[in-house]
Amino acid sequence: MTQMIKADPPPNLKSLKTVFVGGARLPKDVGEEFANKFDVKDLHNVYSMTEITMLATMGETETGNYHAIGKVWYGMQIKIVDIETEALLGENENGEIRVKGPFSFKGYYKKEQLSKDLIDSDGFIKTGDIGYFDENETFYMVDRIKEIIKQN
């Protein structure tokens, strides 16, 4: 998105109606600049990963809430758990995002231990992402576990 915003001349995106953004949080300034520059009215933050095979959430940015990754997508289940204890967390508590759905993968081929490390005892995929949900059951991704530096 940033490259398209900065491109000179800018790309012709007149036929573009809907944009889905995933992979990382969409910075508000980038989303707004992209939407304004290319007249995009329908911009969505989504959350997924290869092992899920489809969307886990779908967000709406017309409210200006670019940090939200959205509500749980149809047929999917999401839980937030404590990183250390794996206890289920409540609203507005940061923890690991775990996802389960009808098309989620069941494991890596001939890699049983790697599969066990990725899928919890309830069948939820451990995403390695940190997030929370609010009182409206809107989910937010705030960080990646691998990017957190622990200091003792």
UniProtKB/TrEMBL annotation:
Domain AMP-dependent synthetase/ligase span(s) in chain numbering: 5-109
Tagged with keyword Plastid: no
A cellular component term, taken from the record's GO annotations: peroxisome
UniProt-listed Gene3D superfamilies: 3.40.50.980, Luciferase, Domain 3 (2.30.38.10)
Entry's localization field: Peroxisome
Keyword tags: Ligase, Monooxygenase, Oxidoreductase, Peroxisome
SUPFAM superfamilies: Acetyl-CoA synthetase-like (SSF56801)
Molecular function as annotated in GO: CoA-ligase activity; monooxygenase activity
InterPro entries: AMP-dep_synth/lig_dom
Family: Belongs to the ATP-dependent AMP-binding enzyme family.
Name recorded for this polypeptide: Luciferin 4-monooxygenase-like protein
